[in-house]
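Lab meeting, item 3. Inverse folding demo.
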């Protein structure tokens, strides 16, 4: 088999694997997250009833809710050393920006994933001899 045919077959196999992965992640991720409207009061209520305020709380929250709430608070002028100072504020600020202006905190994940893919592509173009 010629080298060009092998490359074409590999390309189509990878293309179908990527399409399958998007289909699978679409079903797993569920479209309700992308159509969700950001509700600051809901996140504030969850934060004040969580383990971050009440140590023995029965309502723990994950990092997604914490970073969204804290990012919005940072953008409103709260000192970063007062709320969740364990991690640097840049990522939380970006999540807060997306939450406030696009009204959905999950768009930041899509944006950062696409940015990572684009930067990996540029890096591979610089360091690899074979472009495929």
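The presenter then showed the designed sequence:
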């Amino acid at each position: 088999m010629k080298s060009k045919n092998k490359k074409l077959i590999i390309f189509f196999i990878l293309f179908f694997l990527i399409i399958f992965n998007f289909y699978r992640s679409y079903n797993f991720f569920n479209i309700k997250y992308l159509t969700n409207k950001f509700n600051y009061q809901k996140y504030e209520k969850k934060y004040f009833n969580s383990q971050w305020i009440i140590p023995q709380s029965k309502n723990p929250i994950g990092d997604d809710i914490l970073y969204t709430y804290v990012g919005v608070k940072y953008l409103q002028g709260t000192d970063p050393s007062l709320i969740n100072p364990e991690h640097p504020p840049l990522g939380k600020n970006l999540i807060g920006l997306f939450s406030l202006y696009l009204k959905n905190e999950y768009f930041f994940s899509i944006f950062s994933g696409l940015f990572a893919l684009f930067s990996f592509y540029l890096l591979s173009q610089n360091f690899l001899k074979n472009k495929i």
